[in-house]
Amino acid sequence: MPDLKCTPGAASPAVTQATLARKICRKGGYTKGIRPPVSVTGREKKLNAASYGYPGSLGDAEYDHDISLQLGGDPNDARNL
User: Fold this and answer.
1) Residue among 25, 35, 18 at smallest CA distance from 76
2) I need a labelling partner for 24 at 20 to 30 A (CA). Which of 11, 18, 32, 46 fits?
3) This prediction's pTM
4) pLDDT confidence tier of residue 1, bands split at 50, 70 and 90
């Protein structure tokens, strides 16, 4: 279960009510163009697992954004990973 001390979540400042149609609801998809590369998420996954005290294989762990990207979660803020 998420631990709000370790993963409080973070909303993207670029996604607001005024930009919703242009950002998230645009044709061609939104998350594909903003998802961070594995070089970023891999490092964050290791740090996040350590903060939770997870000793297992990272390949066996689900790693995702606390606030999903398609709902306006910040893809580049470690508080949301």
Assistant:
1) 35
2) 46
3) 0.71
4) low
Residues facing 11 on adjacent strands? 73
Q: 11 CB contacts (<8 Å, ≥6 apart)?
A: 67, 72, 73, 74, 80
Cβ–Cβ under 8 Å, residues 76 and 70:
no
User: What single letter denotes the amino acid at residue 37?
Assistant: P
Residue identified by tokens 């297992």 is 56
- In this structure, the number of other CB atoms found within 10 A of the CB of residue 14 comes to 13
Cβ contact 74:80 at 8 Å: yes
Q: How far is the CA of 46 from the CAs of 21, 32, 37, 51, 76, in angstroms?
A: 34, 23, 15, 9, 16
